[in-house]
Write a structure and sequence with these properties.
Blueprint lengths: L1 H8 L3 H16 L8 H14 L6 H19 L5 H4 L2 H4 L3 H26 L4 H17 L22 H23 L4 H18 L13 E6 L4 H4 L2 H16 L6 E3 L16 H6 L6 E8 L5 E8 L5 E6 L13 H6 L22 E3 L3 E7 L18 E6 L8 H17 L3 E5 L4 E4 L5 E5 L5 E6 L8 H5 L2 H22 L1
Parallel strand pairs: 1-2, 2-3, 7-8, 8-9
Antiparallel strand pairs: 1-12, 3-4, 4-5, 6-7, 9-10, 10-11
Amino acid sequence: MANIGAQFAARGPVLRLVVFAALGAVAGLGQAPFDLWPATILALGVVFALYPHALSRRQAVFHAWAFGFGYFAFSLRWIVEPFLVDIERHGWMAPFALFLMAAGGAIFWALAAWVATRLAPRSPMMFALALVGSELLRSLILTGFPWALLGHVWVTTGLAQAAAYGGPHLLTLLMVLCGLAIAALLGPARIVGLVVLGLVLALSFVLRPGPAGLPSGDLPIVRLVQPNAPQEQKWDPAFTDVFLRRLTTYSAEGPVPDLVVWPETAVPYLLNRIDDDLGFLADSARGAPLVFGIQRRDADARAYNSLVVVGPGGALQSIYDKRHLVPFGEYIPGARFLGQLGATGLARNLGVGFTPGATPGPVDLPGIGAAVPLICYEGIFAEEITYSDTRPRLLLLITNDAWFGEAAGPHQHLAQARLRAIEQGLPMVRVANTGISAMIDPKGRITAALPLGVDGAIDAPLPAALGATPYSQWGELPVVLLVLLFIFGGYFRARRDSD
Protein backbone atom coordinates (compact mmCIF):
# COMPACT_ATOMS: atom_id res chain seq x y z
CA MET A 1 0.00 0.00 0.00
CA ALA A 2 2.90 2.35 0.70
CA ASN A 3 4.14 2.13 -2.91
CA ILE A 4 0.62 2.57 -4.28
CA GLY A 5 0.06 5.58 -2.01
CA ALA A 6 3.32 7.23 -3.06
CA GLN A 7 2.57 6.65 -6.74
CA PHE A 8 -0.93 8.04 -6.35
CA ALA A 9 0.32 11.16 -4.53
CA ALA A 10 2.61 11.88 -7.48
CA ARG A 11 -0.24 11.79 -10.01
CA GLY A 12 -1.73 14.94 -11.52
CA PRO A 13 -3.66 17.15 -9.11
CA VAL A 14 -6.92 16.97 -11.06
CA LEU A 15 -6.92 13.17 -11.10
CA ARG A 16 -6.22 13.03 -7.37
CA LEU A 17 -9.07 15.42 -6.57
CA VAL A 18 -11.47 13.44 -8.77
CA VAL A 19 -10.54 10.18 -7.04
CA PHE A 20 -11.03 11.67 -3.58
CA ALA A 21 -14.36 13.20 -4.61
CA ALA A 22 -15.46 9.80 -5.92
CA LEU A 23 -14.45 8.20 -2.62
CA GLY A 24 -16.59 10.83 -0.88
CA ALA A 25 -19.60 9.91 -3.00
CA VAL A 26 -19.05 6.24 -2.13
CA ALA A 27 -18.95 7.18 1.56
CA GLY A 28 -22.29 8.94 1.10
CA LEU A 29 -23.92 5.61 0.23
CA GLY A 30 -24.03 4.93 3.97
CA GLN A 31 -26.67 7.63 4.45
CA ALA A 32 -30.38 6.92 4.06
CA PRO A 33 -32.10 5.74 1.97
CA PHE A 34 -29.28 3.39 0.84
CA ASP A 35 -27.91 2.70 4.36
CA LEU A 36 -24.81 0.97 2.91
CA TRP A 37 -22.64 1.58 5.96
CA PRO A 38 -19.86 -0.79 4.76
CA ALA A 39 -19.33 1.58 1.81
CA THR A 40 -18.65 4.45 4.20
CA ILE A 41 -16.18 2.38 6.20
CA LEU A 42 -14.31 1.23 3.10
CA ALA A 43 -14.13 4.73 1.60
CA LEU A 44 -12.83 6.16 4.87
CA GLY A 45 -10.31 3.34 5.11
CA VAL A 46 -8.87 4.09 1.68
CA VAL A 47 -8.69 7.82 2.45
CA PHE A 48 -6.93 7.20 5.78
CA ALA A 49 -4.52 4.80 4.05
CA LEU A 50 -3.66 7.41 1.40
CA TYR A 51 -3.46 10.31 3.85
CA PRO A 52 0.19 9.77 5.01
CA HIS A 53 1.39 9.80 1.39
CA ALA A 54 0.37 13.40 0.65
CA LEU A 55 3.47 15.22 -0.58
CA SER A 56 2.69 18.39 1.36
CA ARG A 57 0.33 19.92 3.90
CA ARG A 58 -1.41 21.73 1.06
CA GLN A 59 -1.96 18.48 -0.81
CA ALA A 60 -3.40 16.78 2.27
CA VAL A 61 -5.82 19.67 2.81
CA PHE A 62 -7.06 19.64 -0.77
CA HIS A 63 -7.47 15.86 -0.71
CA ALA A 64 -9.65 16.17 2.39
CA TRP A 65 -11.66 18.96 0.80
CA ALA A 66 -12.29 16.91 -2.34
CA PHE A 67 -13.33 13.91 -0.25
CA GLY A 68 -15.76 16.09 1.68
CA PHE A 69 -17.08 17.72 -1.49
CA GLY A 70 -17.96 14.35 -3.02
CA TYR A 71 -19.54 13.18 0.23
CA PHE A 72 -21.72 16.24 0.74
CA ALA A 73 -22.63 16.64 -2.94
CA PHE A 74 -24.03 13.09 -2.90
CA SER A 75 -25.53 13.08 0.61
CA LEU A 76 -27.16 16.52 0.30
CA ARG A 77 -28.43 16.10 -3.27
CA TRP A 78 -31.97 16.64 -1.96
CA ILE A 79 -31.10 20.32 -1.42
CA VAL A 80 -32.07 21.03 -5.04
CA GLU A 81 -35.70 19.98 -4.46
CA PRO A 82 -36.97 23.22 -2.82
CA PHE A 83 -35.74 25.20 -5.81
CA LEU A 84 -37.75 22.99 -8.16
CA VAL A 85 -41.11 23.71 -6.49
CA ASP A 86 -41.30 26.95 -8.48
CA ILE A 87 -38.81 25.98 -11.15
CA GLU A 88 -39.37 28.98 -13.38
CA ARG A 89 -38.38 31.41 -10.62
CA HIS A 90 -35.89 29.45 -8.58
CA GLY A 91 -34.77 26.47 -10.66
CA TRP A 92 -31.61 28.21 -11.84
CA MET A 93 -30.41 28.41 -8.22
CA ALA A 94 -30.46 24.62 -7.66
CA PRO A 95 -26.96 23.71 -8.96
CA PHE A 96 -25.43 26.70 -7.19
CA ALA A 97 -27.12 25.70 -3.91
CA LEU A 98 -25.79 22.14 -4.15
CA PHE A 99 -22.29 23.31 -5.04
CA LEU A 100 -22.16 25.83 -2.19
CA MET A 101 -23.52 23.35 0.37
CA ALA A 102 -21.02 20.68 -0.68
CA ALA A 103 -18.11 23.09 -0.84
CA GLY A 104 -19.01 24.64 2.51
CA GLY A 105 -19.29 21.28 4.27
CA ALA A 106 -16.01 20.18 2.71
CA ILE A 107 -14.24 23.17 4.26
CA PHE A 108 -14.73 21.60 7.70
CA TRP A 109 -13.05 18.38 6.53
CA ALA A 110 -10.23 20.37 4.98
CA LEU A 111 -9.85 22.16 8.30
CA ALA A 112 -9.51 18.77 9.99
CA ALA A 113 -6.64 17.86 7.66
CA TRP A 114 -4.95 21.21 8.25
CA VAL A 115 -5.14 20.81 12.03
CA ALA A 116 -3.93 17.21 11.83
CA THR A 117 -0.90 18.10 9.71
CA ARG A 118 0.00 20.79 12.24
CA LEU A 119 -0.25 18.48 15.25
CA ALA A 120 1.05 15.19 13.91
CA PRO A 121 2.01 15.18 10.22
CA ARG A 122 1.16 12.01 8.27
CA SER A 123 -0.84 10.51 11.15
CA PRO A 124 -4.14 8.99 9.91
CA MET A 125 -5.34 8.71 13.50
CA MET A 126 -4.83 12.42 14.10
CA PHE A 127 -6.74 13.20 10.90
CA ALA A 128 -9.55 10.87 11.98
CA LEU A 129 -9.82 12.49 15.41
CA ALA A 130 -9.70 15.96 13.89
CA LEU A 131 -12.50 14.85 11.56
CA VAL A 132 -14.68 14.04 14.58
CA GLY A 133 -13.93 17.50 15.94
CA SER A 134 -14.76 19.15 12.62
CA GLU A 135 -18.10 17.35 12.48
CA LEU A 136 -18.88 18.66 15.97
CA LEU A 137 -17.89 22.15 14.84
CA ARG A 138 -20.10 21.83 11.76
CA SER A 139 -22.99 21.00 14.08
CA LEU A 140 -22.58 24.23 16.05
CA ILE A 141 -20.96 27.07 14.11
CA LEU A 142 -23.15 29.66 12.31
CA THR A 143 -26.31 28.12 13.87
CA GLY A 144 -25.02 24.66 12.88
CA PHE A 145 -25.92 22.13 10.22
CA PRO A 146 -25.53 18.60 11.64
CA TRP A 147 -27.04 16.87 8.61
CA ALA A 148 -25.35 13.79 7.12
CA LEU A 149 -22.90 13.41 9.99
CA LEU A 150 -20.63 10.42 9.46
CA GLY A 151 -22.16 8.76 12.51
CA HIS A 152 -25.66 8.85 11.00
CA VAL A 153 -24.84 5.83 8.85
CA TRP A 154 -25.20 3.57 11.91
CA VAL A 155 -28.95 4.26 12.32
CA THR A 156 -30.03 0.87 10.98
CA THR A 157 -27.45 -1.04 13.05
CA GLY A 158 -27.07 -1.94 16.69
CA LEU A 159 -24.39 0.71 17.08
CA ALA A 160 -27.12 3.36 16.87
CA GLN A 161 -27.88 2.52 20.51
CA ALA A 162 -24.52 4.01 21.48
CA ALA A 163 -26.15 7.40 20.85
CA ALA A 164 -27.84 7.02 24.24
CA TYR A 165 -24.36 7.35 25.78
CA GLY A 166 -22.61 9.89 23.56
CA GLY A 167 -25.02 11.19 20.95
CA PRO A 168 -24.26 11.46 17.23
CA HIS A 169 -20.61 12.37 17.73
CA LEU A 170 -19.87 9.14 19.56
CA LEU A 171 -21.29 7.40 16.48
CA THR A 172 -18.95 9.47 14.30
CA LEU A 173 -16.02 8.44 16.50
CA LEU A 174 -16.96 4.78 16.05
CA MET A 175 -17.17 5.30 12.30
CA VAL A 176 -13.69 6.82 11.96
CA LEU A 177 -12.28 4.07 14.18
CA CYS A 178 -13.67 1.53 11.72
CA GLY A 179 -12.11 3.51 8.86
CA LEU A 180 -8.76 3.45 10.66
CA ALA A 181 -9.14 -0.31 11.10
CA ILE A 182 -9.60 -0.74 7.33
CA ALA A 183 -6.53 1.43 6.74
CA ALA A 184 -4.62 -0.81 9.14
CA LEU A 185 -5.72 -3.87 7.16
CA LEU A 186 -4.23 -2.26 4.06
CA GLY A 187 -0.92 -1.75 5.85
CA PRO A 188 1.38 -3.70 8.17
CA ALA A 189 -0.87 -3.44 11.28
CA ARG A 190 -3.42 -5.96 10.06
CA ILE A 191 -3.89 -7.61 13.45
CA VAL A 192 -4.79 -4.28 15.05
CA GLY A 193 -7.31 -3.60 12.28
CA LEU A 194 -8.94 -6.99 12.71
CA VAL A 195 -9.18 -6.54 16.48
CA VAL A 196 -10.80 -3.10 16.17
CA LEU A 197 -13.31 -4.26 13.57
CA GLY A 198 -14.09 -7.34 15.65
CA LEU A 199 -14.73 -5.24 18.75
CA VAL A 200 -16.99 -2.82 16.91
CA LEU A 201 -18.99 -5.63 15.31
CA ALA A 202 -19.32 -7.32 18.70
CA LEU A 203 -20.52 -4.07 20.23
CA SER A 204 -23.10 -3.73 17.46
CA PHE A 205 -24.36 -7.25 18.20
CA VAL A 206 -24.55 -6.61 21.95
CA LEU A 207 -26.38 -3.30 21.60
CA ARG A 208 -28.87 -4.39 18.95
CA PRO A 209 -32.30 -4.12 20.62
CA GLY A 210 -34.17 -6.65 18.48
CA PRO A 211 -37.77 -6.20 17.30
CA ALA A 212 -40.07 -3.88 19.20
CA GLY A 213 -42.59 -6.55 20.14
CA LEU A 214 -46.21 -6.02 21.07
CA PRO A 215 -47.17 -3.02 23.23
CA SER A 216 -47.93 -3.86 26.84
CA GLY A 217 -50.08 -2.09 29.39
CA ASP A 218 -52.64 0.63 28.94
CA LEU A 219 -50.77 2.91 26.54
CA PRO A 220 -52.23 6.12 25.07
CA ILE A 221 -53.32 5.88 21.44
CA VAL A 222 -52.02 8.61 19.14
CA ARG A 223 -53.53 9.29 15.73
CA LEU A 224 -50.99 10.50 13.17
CA VAL A 225 -52.75 12.31 10.30
CA GLN A 226 -50.94 12.85 7.01
CA PRO A 227 -52.75 15.06 4.43
CA ASN A 228 -50.15 14.64 1.63
CA ALA A 229 -50.21 18.20 0.34
CA PRO A 230 -47.57 18.68 -2.40
CA GLN A 231 -45.62 21.86 -1.83
CA GLU A 232 -46.70 23.45 -5.11
CA GLN A 233 -50.36 23.02 -4.03
CA LYS A 234 -50.08 23.51 -0.29
CA TRP A 235 -50.72 27.28 -0.32
CA ASP A 236 -52.86 27.36 -3.48
CA PRO A 237 -56.35 28.68 -2.50
CA ALA A 238 -57.87 26.10 -4.84
CA PHE A 239 -56.43 23.26 -2.72
CA THR A 240 -56.14 24.52 0.86
CA ASP A 241 -59.65 23.47 1.87
CA VAL A 242 -59.14 20.09 0.17
CA PHE A 243 -56.20 19.29 2.45
CA LEU A 244 -57.98 20.71 5.51
CA ARG A 245 -60.95 18.43 4.81
CA ARG A 246 -58.58 15.46 4.66
CA LEU A 247 -57.23 16.35 8.07
CA THR A 248 -60.63 16.74 9.73
CA THR A 249 -62.13 13.69 8.00
CA TYR A 250 -59.30 11.33 8.96
CA SER A 251 -59.33 12.71 12.51
CA ALA A 252 -63.05 12.06 12.94
CA GLU A 253 -63.06 8.45 11.75
CA GLY A 254 -62.97 5.29 13.85
CA PRO A 255 -62.41 4.96 17.60
CA VAL A 256 -61.56 8.11 19.53
CA PRO A 257 -57.79 8.27 20.21
CA ASP A 258 -56.08 9.94 23.16
CA LEU A 259 -54.23 12.43 20.97
CA VAL A 260 -54.49 13.65 17.37
CA VAL A 261 -51.46 15.17 15.64
CA TRP A 262 -51.34 17.06 12.33
CA PRO A 263 -48.12 18.20 10.59
CA GLU A 264 -46.29 21.52 10.36
CA THR A 265 -48.38 24.41 8.95
CA ALA A 266 -51.26 21.97 8.56
CA VAL A 267 -53.80 24.79 8.85
CA PRO A 268 -53.18 27.25 5.98
CA TYR A 269 -54.47 30.33 7.79
CA LEU A 270 -53.13 32.64 10.44
CA LEU A 271 -53.96 31.55 13.97
CA ASN A 272 -55.05 35.10 14.71
CA ARG A 273 -57.77 34.88 12.07
CA ILE A 274 -59.41 31.55 12.88
CA ASP A 275 -60.44 31.99 16.52
CA ASP A 276 -64.04 31.15 15.64
CA ASP A 277 -62.97 28.06 13.67
CA LEU A 278 -60.83 26.40 16.35
CA GLY A 279 -63.94 24.73 17.74
CA PHE A 280 -64.66 23.19 14.33
CA LEU A 281 -61.12 21.83 14.11
CA ALA A 282 -61.23 20.54 17.69
CA ASP A 283 -64.56 18.78 17.05
CA SER A 284 -62.82 16.47 14.56
CA ALA A 285 -60.68 15.18 17.44
CA ARG A 286 -63.87 14.41 19.43
CA GLY A 287 -62.56 15.49 22.82
CA ALA A 288 -58.95 14.39 22.38
CA PRO A 289 -56.18 17.05 22.41
CA LEU A 290 -55.39 18.21 18.89
CA VAL A 291 -51.86 19.28 17.93
CA PHE A 292 -51.13 21.03 14.66
CA GLY A 293 -48.76 23.47 13.01
CA ILE A 294 -49.88 26.95 12.00
CA GLN A 295 -48.46 30.40 11.38
CA ARG A 296 -49.33 33.33 13.60
CA ARG A 297 -48.58 36.99 14.20
CA ASP A 298 -48.15 38.79 17.49
CA ALA A 299 -49.24 42.29 18.44
CA ASP A 300 -46.11 43.73 16.82
CA ALA A 301 -46.88 41.98 13.50
CA ARG A 302 -43.98 39.55 13.93
CA ALA A 303 -44.56 36.19 12.22
CA TYR A 304 -44.01 32.82 13.91
CA ASN A 305 -44.00 29.21 12.77
CA SER A 306 -45.93 27.61 15.60
CA LEU A 307 -47.21 24.39 17.13
CA VAL A 308 -50.46 24.63 19.06
CA VAL A 309 -52.40 22.33 21.36
CA VAL A 310 -56.17 22.74 21.14
CA GLY A 311 -58.59 21.19 23.60
CA PRO A 312 -62.34 20.48 23.48
CA GLY A 313 -64.43 23.35 22.23
CA GLY A 314 -61.43 24.96 20.55
CA ALA A 315 -59.72 26.03 23.77
CA LEU A 316 -56.15 27.06 22.95
CA GLN A 317 -54.08 25.28 25.61
CA SER A 318 -50.46 25.71 24.49
CA ILE A 319 -48.46 27.57 21.86
CA TYR A 320 -44.86 26.78 20.96
CA ASP A 321 -43.01 29.00 18.48
CA LYS A 322 -40.18 27.47 16.46
CA ARG A 323 -36.87 28.62 17.94
CA HIS A 324 -34.23 27.33 15.49
CA LEU A 325 -35.18 28.72 12.10
CA VAL A 326 -33.78 27.70 8.71
CA PRO A 327 -31.30 30.30 7.41
CA PHE A 328 -32.43 31.67 4.04
CA GLY A 329 -35.51 29.42 4.26
CA GLU A 330 -37.38 30.98 7.18
CA TYR A 331 -35.32 34.07 7.74
CA ILE A 332 -32.50 35.90 6.00
CA PRO A 333 -29.34 36.41 8.05
CA GLY A 334 -28.56 40.10 7.95
CA ALA A 335 -31.96 40.74 6.35
CA ARG A 336 -31.94 44.46 7.03
CA PHE A 337 -28.61 44.92 5.27
CA LEU A 338 -29.59 42.63 2.38
CA GLY A 339 -32.92 44.40 2.05
CA GLN A 340 -31.10 47.65 1.50
CA LEU A 341 -29.30 45.94 -1.37
CA GLY A 342 -32.59 44.70 -2.82
CA ALA A 343 -32.05 40.98 -2.00
CA THR A 344 -35.08 39.15 -0.65
CA GLY A 345 -34.28 35.48 -1.32
CA LEU A 346 -36.63 32.63 -0.50
CA ALA A 347 -37.07 33.53 3.16
CA ARG A 348 -40.14 35.63 2.66
CA ASN A 349 -43.23 34.84 4.65
CA LEU A 350 -46.17 37.25 4.50
CA GLY A 351 -43.66 39.90 3.50
CA VAL A 352 -41.21 39.18 6.35
CA GLY A 353 -39.14 36.33 7.71
CA PHE A 354 -40.17 34.37 10.79
CA THR A 355 -39.15 35.45 14.27
CA PRO A 356 -37.52 32.80 16.52
CA GLY A 357 -39.58 31.75 19.53
CA ALA A 358 -38.46 32.53 23.05
CA THR A 359 -39.93 29.63 25.04
CA PRO A 360 -38.33 26.16 24.77
CA GLY A 361 -41.28 24.13 26.02
CA PRO A 362 -42.28 21.48 26.90
CA VAL A 363 -45.98 21.63 26.09
CA ASP A 364 -48.56 19.77 28.14
CA LEU A 365 -50.76 17.18 26.45
CA PRO A 366 -53.79 16.58 28.69
CA GLY A 367 -54.10 12.95 29.72
CA ILE A 368 -50.64 12.08 28.37
CA GLY A 369 -48.03 14.39 29.88
CA ALA A 370 -45.28 16.78 28.88
CA ALA A 371 -43.93 16.72 25.32
CA VAL A 372 -40.76 18.30 23.92
CA PRO A 373 -42.02 20.19 20.83
CA LEU A 374 -39.90 20.19 17.68
CA ILE A 375 -40.79 21.76 14.35
CA CYS A 376 -39.07 20.30 11.27
CA TYR A 377 -35.46 21.58 11.20
CA GLU A 378 -35.25 21.56 14.99
CA GLY A 379 -35.26 17.78 14.96
CA ILE A 380 -31.71 17.58 13.58
CA PHE A 381 -30.08 19.33 16.56
CA ALA A 382 -29.37 16.71 19.21
CA GLU A 383 -27.80 19.16 21.66
CA GLU A 384 -30.79 21.53 21.55
CA ILE A 385 -33.36 19.12 22.97
CA THR A 386 -33.74 20.55 26.44
CA TYR A 387 -36.41 20.47 29.09
CA SER A 388 -36.97 21.30 32.72
CA ASP A 389 -36.12 19.09 35.67
CA THR A 390 -39.29 17.08 35.09
CA ARG A 391 -38.63 14.38 32.51
CA PRO A 392 -41.10 14.60 29.58
CA ARG A 393 -43.26 11.76 28.33
CA LEU A 394 -42.35 12.06 24.65
CA LEU A 395 -40.75 13.99 21.81
CA LEU A 396 -43.28 15.59 19.46
CA LEU A 397 -42.04 16.51 15.99
CA ILE A 398 -44.19 18.01 13.24
CA THR A 399 -42.67 18.68 9.84
CA ASN A 400 -43.31 19.53 6.21
CA ASP A 401 -40.88 17.48 4.16
CA ALA A 402 -42.84 18.18 0.97
CA TRP A 403 -40.08 20.69 0.15
CA PHE A 404 -37.70 17.75 -0.35
CA GLY A 405 -39.77 15.58 -2.68
CA GLU A 406 -39.65 11.82 -2.21
CA ALA A 407 -35.92 11.25 -2.62
CA ALA A 408 -33.20 11.18 0.03
CA GLY A 409 -34.26 14.18 2.15
CA PRO A 410 -37.31 12.73 3.96
CA HIS A 411 -35.51 9.43 4.62
CA GLN A 412 -32.48 11.18 6.12
CA HIS A 413 -34.72 13.42 8.21
CA LEU A 414 -36.53 10.35 9.57
CA ALA A 415 -33.20 8.67 10.38
CA GLN A 416 -32.22 11.64 12.52
CA ALA A 417 -35.57 11.52 14.31
CA ARG A 418 -34.81 7.91 15.25
CA LEU A 419 -31.49 9.01 16.73
CA ARG A 420 -33.18 11.76 18.80
CA ALA A 421 -35.42 9.11 20.37
CA ILE A 422 -32.43 6.89 21.22
CA GLU A 423 -30.40 9.80 22.63
CA GLN A 424 -33.17 10.86 24.99
CA GLY A 425 -34.67 7.45 25.77
CA LEU A 426 -38.07 8.86 24.81
CA PRO A 427 -40.63 7.82 22.21
CA MET A 428 -41.14 10.23 19.35
CA VAL A 429 -44.35 11.10 17.54
CA ARG A 430 -43.33 12.32 14.09
CA VAL A 431 -46.00 13.64 11.74
CA ALA A 432 -45.03 14.84 8.25
CA ASN A 433 -47.16 16.55 5.65
CA THR A 434 -46.27 14.17 2.80
CA GLY A 435 -44.52 11.48 4.88
CA ILE A 436 -42.83 9.73 6.43
CA SER A 437 -45.04 9.96 9.54
CA ALA A 438 -44.02 7.49 12.23
CA MET A 439 -44.26 6.38 15.82
CA ILE A 440 -40.73 5.76 17.06
CA ASP A 441 -39.95 4.00 20.32
CA PRO A 442 -37.09 4.95 22.71
CA LYS A 443 -34.79 2.46 20.97
CA GLY A 444 -35.29 4.18 17.63
CA ARG A 445 -37.50 1.42 16.23
CA ILE A 446 -40.41 2.42 14.02
CA THR A 447 -43.53 0.81 15.45
CA ALA A 448 -46.02 2.34 13.00
CA ALA A 449 -45.65 4.50 9.90
CA LEU A 450 -47.34 6.11 6.92
CA PRO A 451 -45.16 6.01 3.78
CA LEU A 452 -44.21 8.87 1.49
CA GLY A 453 -46.73 10.27 -0.93
CA VAL A 454 -49.98 9.00 0.58
CA ASP A 455 -52.73 10.61 2.61
CA GLY A 456 -54.26 8.85 5.56
CA ALA A 457 -54.13 8.30 9.29
CA ILE A 458 -52.75 5.65 11.58
CA ASP A 459 -53.42 4.93 15.24
CA ALA A 460 -50.39 3.87 17.23
CA PRO A 461 -49.81 3.15 20.93
CA LEU A 462 -47.36 5.60 22.48
CA PRO A 463 -44.44 3.48 23.76
CA ALA A 464 -43.36 3.90 27.37
CA ALA A 465 -40.41 6.19 28.04
CA LEU A 466 -37.14 4.80 29.38
CA GLY A 467 -35.08 6.27 32.19
CA ALA A 468 -32.87 9.28 31.57
CA THR A 469 -29.96 8.35 29.29
CA PRO A 470 -26.35 9.39 29.91
CA TYR A 471 -26.55 11.60 26.82
CA SER A 472 -29.64 13.40 28.10
CA GLN A 473 -27.70 14.25 31.26
CA TRP A 474 -24.17 14.91 29.95
CA GLY A 475 -24.59 15.79 26.30
CA GLU A 476 -21.44 15.89 24.15
CA LEU A 477 -19.07 16.57 27.05
CA PRO A 478 -17.75 12.99 27.51
CA VAL A 479 -17.10 12.56 23.77
CA VAL A 480 -15.41 15.95 23.50
CA LEU A 481 -13.13 15.13 26.43
CA LEU A 482 -12.34 11.70 25.00
CA VAL A 483 -11.43 13.09 21.58
CA LEU A 484 -9.32 15.85 23.12
CA LEU A 485 -7.53 13.27 25.26
CA PHE A 486 -6.70 11.18 22.17
CA ILE A 487 -5.58 14.27 20.23
CA PHE A 488 -3.24 15.43 22.98
CA GLY A 489 -1.89 11.89 23.36
CA GLY A 490 -1.25 11.67 19.62
CA TYR A 491 0.37 15.10 19.59
CA PHE A 492 2.83 14.34 22.38
CA ARG A 493 3.62 10.96 20.90
CA ALA A 494 4.41 12.60 17.55
CA ARG A 495 6.62 15.13 19.32
CA ARG A 496 8.46 12.38 21.14
CA ASP A 497 9.00 10.36 17.93
CA SER A 498 10.33 13.41 16.12
CA ASP A 499 12.91 14.21 18.82
